[in-house]
Amino acid sequence: MKTAVLYAGQGSQVPGMGKSFYEEFSVFRDTIDRAAEYVDFDLKKVMFEGPQETLNETRYTQPCLAAFAAGVTNLLRSEGFSADAAAGLSLGEYSALYAAGVFTEEQLIRATAFRGAAMQKAGEGLETKMCALLGLDDEKAAACAEQAASETGKPVYISNYNAAGQVVISGLLPAVRRAEELALDAGARKCMELATSSAFHTPFMAEAARSLGPYLKGLPLGEMKLPVIFNATGSELRPGETVRVLLEKQVVSPVHMSQSLTYLAEHGVTRTVEIGPGHVLTGFVRRTIRGTEGIVLDEADDLKQFLKELRENQ
Predict the structure, then answer these.
(1) For 54-87, how does the pLDDT look when each residue is reduced to its tens digit (9 = 90+)?
(2) Which residues are catalytic?
(3) Fold annotation for 128-193
């Protein structure tokens, strides 16, 4: 059985995330305590207490989710668990690279804090929105976005191919609203607004990409010890590609999550372990690839059960 670890992205954050892990596992607790030293805000307070409005601010969301991911990853490592591949949704890609040995723990937290601040700054002053179109295929979603942009004269883009039948559009508010109307007319089951602060993975993030480039160039990266499936391509690193360039590209181009999941399945992955909070990615797996077992590690009890089964099968 091949196993891939999947790391949640922005939108999954919720006050109290990681609190049960923090209370029960010293490895997780030590990770979060270290992470708190790498940022310029009270990371533990924001993670464990919120409020939601504060946690939703991109500059806080990203390092908090990365700290959660690092803590659970370190816990799994301490128990001898190893995966066959890793992937993450947007921000989660940084945690996947940590799991693969490309980033150190400190680099992960500092890089996501930098990225979060850069992305928040890039979106300031813009009336934008991200919305998931449920029950519409990629082609129809793209057609709705294109028509809405034409009718309103405002840009709206496809920013995420999350799963079969779930595409995210992002752009200026009038265009997104019109695209939602067109999507419902075209047969979409629902249009769901996302808990993000700007139009990520679109040209609106060009300023953030320009900031990320030099920042990433200055980071010494470790050897990749685990295949990582990249958002920008839906594939492993290919000849001529570099981690730094793909991470810079990622913020301004669509996330190919459904393609990444298909790639994993085509290369023998039959089990995914989602490192949350939440179970969004496991839902994407169910919609996109069949015959794959999905495990969610959202709370301490989830991890205890997973470790129990892991030991029994060793």
Answers:
(1) 999 999 999 999 999 999 999 999 999 999 999 9
(2) 90, 201
(3) Alpha-Beta Plaits (3.30.70)
